[in-house]
Design a protein that fits this description.
Elements (H helix, E strand, L loop, with lengths): L9 H6 L1 H12 L5 H19 L14 H4 L2 H15 L11
Helix pairs in contact: 2-3
């Protein structure tokens, strides 16, 4: 992958926000001590909470896997086929099972 591009995934943020914040700081070339990283994680958690509880963003609801409540089996099969076709050569991976 291009070292000028950092791919961040919501699922990774959901699983381990601290590691993701550290990864972002390294990518940006920012040196942070443990207290600063913890403060950033807390600020991010507060922002996520505010955004996901906003009426304007009600589809978010602050959880992963919401697509399972929206997609039918047929829709998921179609998505999987298109995803494999379009992304088959990519080394990006996503955890759709969360």
């Amino acid at each position: 992958m291009d070292s000028n591009v950092l791919f961040l995934k919501y699922e990774d943020m959901y699983k381990d926000l601290g590691t993701l914040v550290e990864q972002l700081a390294r990518f940006l070339g920012i040196s942070c001590d443990k207290a600063q990283l913890e403060s950033m994680v807390e600020s991010c958690n507060q922002l996520i909470e505010q955004c996901c509880n906003s009426e304007a963003l009600s589809i978010c609801r602050g959880r992963v896997g919401l697509w399972k409540d929206i997609f039918t089996v047929s829709m998921n099969d179609k998505f999987d086929a298109v995803y494999r076709q379009k992304m088959g050569k990519s080394d990006l991976t996503f955890d759709f099972g969360l």
